[in-house]
Amino acid sequence: MILLVGCGKMGGAMFAGWRAAGRDVAVVEPDAAHHPAGAALAVADAADLPRTLAPEAVVLAVKPQEAAKTLPAYARFAERSVFVSIMAGKSVGGMQALLGGSARIVRAMPNTPAAIGRGITVCCAGQGVSAAEKALAESLLKTVGQVAWVEDEALIDPVTALSGGGPAYVFLLAEVLEQAGIANGLPAELAAQLARATVAGAGALLDASSEPPATLRRNVTSPGGTTAEALKVLMDAPAWPALMTRAIAAATARSRELAG
User: Fold this and answer.
1) Burial bucket for residue 108 (CB in 10 Å: 0-12, 13-18, 19+)
2) Do 30 and 132 fall within a single domain?
3) What is the signed CA dihedral for 217, 218, 221, 223, rounded to 10 degrees?
4) pLDDT tens digits along 34-60
5) How would you classify the pairing of strands 104-109 and 41-43?
6) pTM summary value
7) What residues are paired with 27 via a beta bridge?
């Protein structure tokens, strides 16, 4: 039995993957409209859970701002269950302060392509997590995409900035491509179609290819051609390279601020 605490978009995506894999899942979600079909049990509050419930894992998928008021109710599972947290910015130490110092916690950062099984999650195991518990956490998270591990918890902050927020940066690229197309005379509907298909297609090509991104970029760029002219602007040191470094640094700093 898996206990899922919070069944929003990410929690719901994970739930769907677990049910497809045949796992029994209990859900705590205050909004009854988000109680998923197929749950072994769905309640609005931890107080409504049976006292006999003994989940293998408790997956914490609530907003990080809700951690302080939510987590203490689950301290009773610390002896028998491993906790898997996907709350951005919440450190293992901060969660142990709310769950009890003996709580065994895997801190994980997924991203939203998990909704279609194409996410990537980076994990860090806290003190006391066994090899079997790590394997359980990995099996749960693999239902929504790739899984990687780091030993240094501090790396979860730049992971959050890069892959956690990364889909938003890609969607922004599609937005600005569309706007630039319109600004250069394309009809709005065509510009939107071209931007969406180009970003999606390039992502699929990157995924399917074993070549590094730099090689794929060069493959599109004829010397002296139109793409080369655009890249002169985008790859100028103060342009994309500096802006993306600043953006990831800002998001990393915010992740660290949220830790507690």
Assistant:
1) buried
2) yes
3) 160
4) 999 999 999 999 999 999 999 999 999
5) unpaired
6) 0.90
7) 4, 42
Last residue of a domain, one of 130, 156, 182: 156
d(CA 172, CA 240): 13
Q: How far apart are CA 251 and CA 19, in angstroms?
A: 33
Domain of residue 46: give its range: 2-156
List 138's β-bridge partners, or say none. none
Closest to 51 (Cα-Cα) out of 21, 73, 29: 73
Q: Determine contact, residues 25/2, Cβ cutoff 8 Å.
A: yes
pLDDT given for residue 9 in this prediction: 87
Distances (CA, A) of 104 to 32, 38, 47, 157: 29, 28, 22, 20
pLDDT beyond 70 at 125: yes
Q: Residue 119 and residue 99: Cα distance in Å, rounded?
A: 28
